[in-house]
Write a structure and sequence with these properties.
Alpha-Beta Plaits, 185 residues, alpha+beta, two-stranded antiparallel ribbon
Amino acid sequence: MLVAFNKPHGVLCQFTDRSAPPRPTLAGFGLPAAVYPAGRLDHDSEGLLLLTDDGALAHRITDPRHKLAKTYLVQVEGAPSPAQLDALRTGVTLNDGPTRPARARLLDTPPALWPRDPPVRVRKTVPDAWLELEIREGRNRQVRRMTAAVGLPTLRLVRIAIGGCALDGIAPGAWREIPMATPFG
């Protein structure tokens, strides 16, 4: 079984939380029994999370050797320059080494997304912009670290696709089963 879930902001990518007070987890969304996340999204990120009961498929989705494309909509603080976009496209050096080149595109208009709770902080004196960013690796908080490295801090991060699976209208907190034949390459 393969499930596509739209993880809301502030939800942990696990089924239990031992912290006090406990934070929202995947357990509160009626997901099918015996599925587990194939990858992660940090607490502050939103969007597509794949869950499966198939260990080999989870490995195929998460193992960096497969270079599976992950696509994000990223709201950044600042107005991206051509040099900043080129840096993302050629790869940036992070504290754990250089990233692979990314596909980065400045969006002309903000994407049509659901409202975030809590809303993103707005500063009248600092512009923001939206990027579409595709990476083929999955380091911890990689997209946030990449945009920060080029001087564009991330304000909102929404994953919209992993390989051949896309969010495609799944509301925050909702999920649907995906045919196992969906391509991952």
